[in-house]
Design goal:
Blueprint (H helix, E strand, L loop, with lengths): L3 H7 L16 H7 L5 H5 L5 E3 L5 E3 L11 H5 L16 E4 L13 H5 L5 E6 L2 E7 L19 E4 L1 H5 L1
Antiparallel strand pairs: 1-2, 3-6, 4-5
The protein binds iron/sulfur cluster (3 copies).
InterPro entries: 4Fe4S_Fe-S-bd, 4Fe4S_Fe_S_CS, NapF, PSI_iron-sulfur_center
Subunit structure: Interacts with the cytoplasmic NapA precursor.
Cofactor: [4Fe-4S] cluster
Amino acid sequence: MFDRGRRNLLSRRRTPALPRMPWLVDEDTFVDNCTRCNKCLSACETKIIVKGDGGFPTIDFNQGECTFCTQCVDACPEPLFRSTTEAAWDVKARINQQCLAQSNVECRSCGDMCEVQAIRFKLQAGGVAQPELELDLCNGCGACVATCPTSAITMVTRKLEEK
Ligand code: SF4
Ligand code: SF4
Ligand code: SF4
C-alpha cells in the first residue's frame, strides 16, 4: 500500500525530466495512482521504460525506441492510460547545437533511422547538409536519439518545451 503522505510529497505537481509512457492520462493522475509495481518495465518490448525520479517509471530513449506496441498499457493494473486509439503523446524530437552538421561534419544518422522521414537534410552551399525536423511528422518514437554520435537529440513534451 502506497503511503498517502509520501504520495502527496512526490506528487508536488512537477514536470518529469524525461517523458513518461505513451497514452498516459496526465502527470498528476499518474503520480497519484502509480504504485511503482514495475509491470510496465517488464512488459516493454524495447526496454526503454526505466525507474526515474522517486522510482516512478519514465522513458529513456538512450535504451531504444518506442514501437507503440501498447504492452505497457496492457500490463498496467491501474487506471492510468487513455484509449490506445487516441494519439499516443505530444513528445517530439529536438536537435541541439551539438549536431555534427552544425560544425560542418557530414552526418545523416538520425535521418536514416527515422521511419516517417521527419528529419530531412537540406543542402547548404559550401557546407554539409543540415537536418531539419518536421514536427508535424515526428511521432516521438525516439529512434533517432541513440543513433546520434554526439547526443544532440533530446525528446521533449510540449510541457517541457514551455518550461
Ligand atoms: S508502447 Fe511498447 S515500446 Fe513504447 S513504452 Fe510502451 S511497452 Fe515500451
Ligand atoms: S545524428 Fe546527430 S549529429 Fe548526426 S545529423 Fe543527426 S542530430 Fe546531427
Ligand atoms: S522521434 Fe522518431 S519520428 Fe521523430 S524525428 Fe526521431 S525518429 Fe523521426
